Amino acid sequence: MAEEVTLSGHIQHHLTNAKMCTTDSGLAFNKACSDSGFWTWHIDTLAWSIGLGILFLWIFRRAANKATTGVPDKFQCFIEMVIDFVGDNVSKTFQGKSALIAPLALTIFVWVFLMNLMDLIPVDFLPALAGFVGETAFGMDSHDVYMKIVPTTDINLTAALAVGVFLLMIAYSIRIKGVGGFIKELTLHPFSTNNKLAMVFLIPCNLLLETIALVAKPFSLALRLFGNLYAGELIFILIGAVGLMQLPLHFVWAVFHILVIVLQAFVFMMLTIVYLSMASSDNH
Amino acid sequence: MNLNATLIGELIAFIVFVWFCMKYVWPPLNNAIEARQKIIIDGLAASDRAEKDLELAQEKATAQLKEAKAQAAEIIEVAKKRETQIVEEAAVKAEAEKLKILAAGHTEIETERNRVKEELRKQVAILAVAGAEKILERSIDAAAHSDILDKFVAEL
């Protein structure tokens, strides 16, 4: 078995999601879905991300249920530290008041952190386990079982988060400034003049620039998180392929990655707050 | 990039998670934290107040103690004065009593002396009469010579 697997094939196997799609003959998986187009579901991404999201909500909901105003136990203290950290950043960064921003920031921070954290599980553990289960329980070839356990290395997930934030940015812009105000913001800046004729020429330029600036925000959000985690995962996979030397290398990269994991979750959260703060503030 | 339906699924999951967090996670935790902060603020204020109260009470106690000491000193002063006065009064009274007793003694002595004198005078008169009787070897008519005898006794 090992002879047949080339390094690039090994890496390719690691970087492929488990797919599911519907074909004419019912549900199909993986290779059968290679030409299913848009309506393909990455079931590993979906399962791990939703599972981790539920884990996050379960942990925090448990703390919320037990929350007392008296002396908190250590679990509650820890949860409150996270809440306080997020709330602090939100209140310092977000101008104005909104009941949505803080829970949104908390969800992004903890959820993304948990998904990034999956990167620290040695790269072969869960895919090999999935292959073993697939082979013994379902009689599949273990090479046809795919399992990508870090949901943030899937562009679909980071794009989904970015699209969510983007929709909120537009909603906040319209809610605070009105549709007219939002359109004015997109067309009358950064170039403006009192000359009506010149303005007619400037408006398309402004619209182009502002639209690019607006759309760049979700793109940068999605690609930054995806790029960092994808690269990190790729390096883990490469380290995993160099024999015994992988032990010290893996350790060093994992230690460094602890920083990346938290930092990327934090950056995503902070940028979300900043973008929404910009969207809901009037002065351009 | 292979964007596909996963994006939609994740977007829905994201929205649901944020909604759940906003509805059931953030408010109770945040409320608990804020309520505890309020309790701590109240507690600190109460302890401040208690400290101030304690200071006041201590000041009051010190003042009262001082007053009590002053009062005690005053009472002692008055008592001392009264003591001196009582001693002086007693001395005066004793002096008077002494004089009275002395006077009484003198009177008594005088009376006694007079009585004794009288007695002696009588005895002497009797002795004189007896002596004279012996000398004259005869009785003297006491009645006849009483004037002489009385003269004699008076001279004693």
Cα-to-Cα separation, first versus last residue of chain A: 61 Å
Number of helix segments of chain B?
A: 2
Q: Give the proportion of residues in helices of chain B.
A: over 70%
Low-confidence stretches of chain B: none
Q: Encode the helix/strand succession of chain B as letters.
A: HH
Oligomeric state of this protein = heterodimer
Share in β-strands of chain A: under 5%
Residue share in helix of chain A: 55-70%
Shape of chain A: globular
With helices defined by DSSP (H or I, 4 residues minimum), what is the helix count of chain A?
8
Q: How many independent structural domains of chain A?
A: 1
Folded structure, characterized:
The complex is a heterodimer of chains A (284) and B (156). With 284 residues, chain A is mainly alpha-helical. Chain A has one domain (7-279). Chain A is 68% helix and 4% strand. Chain A is built from eight helices and three strands, in the order αβββααααααα. Chain A has helices spanning 7-14, 43-66, 74-93, 101-117, 125-138, 155-187, 196-239, 246-279, and strands at residues 19-23, 26-29, 40-42. Chain A has a three-stranded antiparallel β-sheet. With 156 residues, chain B is mainly α. Chain B has one domain (7-155). In chain B, 93% of the residues lie in helices and 0% in strands. Chain B has helices at residues 6-136, 142-155. The mean pLDDT of chain B is 90. At the A-B interface, β3, α2, α3, α4 and α6 of A face α1 of B.
Question: Which descriptors would you attach to this protein?
Answer:
heterodimer; A: 284 residues; mainly alpha; 4% strand; globular; B: mainly alpha; 93% helix
Summarize the structure.
By secondary structure, chain A is mostly helical. Chain A has helices spanning 7-14, 43-66, 74-93, 101-117, 125-138, 155-187, 196-239, 246-279, and strands at residues 19-23, 26-29, 40-42.
